[in-house]
Structure prediction request, 527 residues.
Amino acid sequence: MLLNKEGKLRKELIQLVSQVEGYNHMSFFKKKSIRSISNSPINESQLLTNDINKNIHSIRDYHCRTEDLMVRELIFNKNICTIFYLDSMVNKDSLHSSVIGPIVETKYGEIQHIVKTTQVKFTSRISDVGSDLLDGFCIILRENNATAISLSVVENTSRSIEEPDNERSIISSHDGFIEDIGTNIFLLRKRVKTPQLKVKYFSVGKLTNTKVSMVFIENLTDKKLIKEVERRIGSIEVDQLLSFGDIEDYIEDNPNSIFPQMLTTERPDRATSYLTEGKILLIVDGSPRIMIVPITFFAFYQSPDDYNSRWIIGTFFRLIRFLSFIVAITFPAIYIAVVSYHSEVLPIGILYSIRVSLENVPFPPLIEAFAMQITLELLKEASIRLPTPIAQTTGIVGGLVIGTAVVEASFVSNIMIVVIGLTAIASFVAPVNEMGTSARLLGFPVMIAASLFGFFGIVLVLMGIFMHLCKLQTFGTPYFAPLAPFKMEDIKDSIVRLSFWKLNSRPTDSKPIYKKQQWRTRGWKNN
Prediction:
């Protein structure tokens, strides 16, 4: 009896173990199937065959039998040929006038010689056929032929070239990049007419297959920099890439730093100037902003208008922008430190005015500054999100009404309103919005340090900020160059802007192959 019971228990145990193992195997297969949902049902290396019906079914399966995949059969050379196209991706007029019309009218000959499209490709892979359909091509399959013909009839729905709203210029050109990658490259080639201008394409995102182009000058840009950018873009493995911000987050050196490490611009003249310095441009299809790498801190405070005015005026405004960065970070903190710890540094008249304005305010200066800074950010965000007429009204009414009300209610002093207003203006001076936002955010820890330790706290935090700037690198380039490391030669077109005839060498931050920029300057003086 005991043996029988042991045998039964042994069998039950074996069955239980097998069930557990079977469950593990099933869960493994389920995970595997979930992992492969995003993959195509067709093998990437599958080829077309001579059976046209089988090819039609394979292409339909590749696109999951979507209903906007249109199929039309024609007779050409006494054989059946089938035309595929995605209804939402092609230009109907171009399709009928350039492809279908010539084929119907001619009926004999070679299709590639009859059609009137600008681009004709031959492929034998189903995956290439599927990709071409997504790019706006129409596909022609022929009976007893394992090669497909791809013809470009893409629908162009991009907007016209116009000046960008975020980077308005006074005396520079008034055109700007748009969402179409081909148009953006055209704007660059229009300005840099050299055969050395090279464009390299990448496809990023398993689901979106977003086209990313890398633009550089072949015999000028550092080869190591080119390989490094290619390596970082090639290492991106994601399902979707929808904007330039996505790729920026994947390839930048220090994603946790508050400072932007890639300069983005919508201005072709600005992008061209960095291109001729040996830098690399990254263009994401569907985004009007172009990324420039590598970049330094001082480039964020340079404007194209600096080069369209006299060098003294350009240098003056550039220095004003650098001063605005310090003001945006430290001005509220200096006010807090003076009121809380160092009132003796002020003349007696100004000190009396500050004390009178603070007499009925129940909050310490730190709370005042924080409340007004956050209120300013709320007004700015509201102005951005609302339609333009309402946004202007919101900014004016919000600034006047709220500012007047909080002063009359003795929640905030008059001096604090002035301080926060000047701080906001200083942060808006930055030509690149990302740097202005970084400056406003850095003001918060500086204010906290000022409320705790006074001027000593401000100096301590500023030391930490500048140490961080000196330590940062972007694609192997020091972020705070040419000050750290110090290069006297590069200061003439970074912190200041000297005359063009003195700018006879390129900045060395991106390590260009040819540092000499002008071979002869003001030669007419010698004649």
Summary: The radius of gyration is 32 Å. The chain has 16 helices and twelve strands. The chain has three domains: 52-152, 181-295, 307-478.
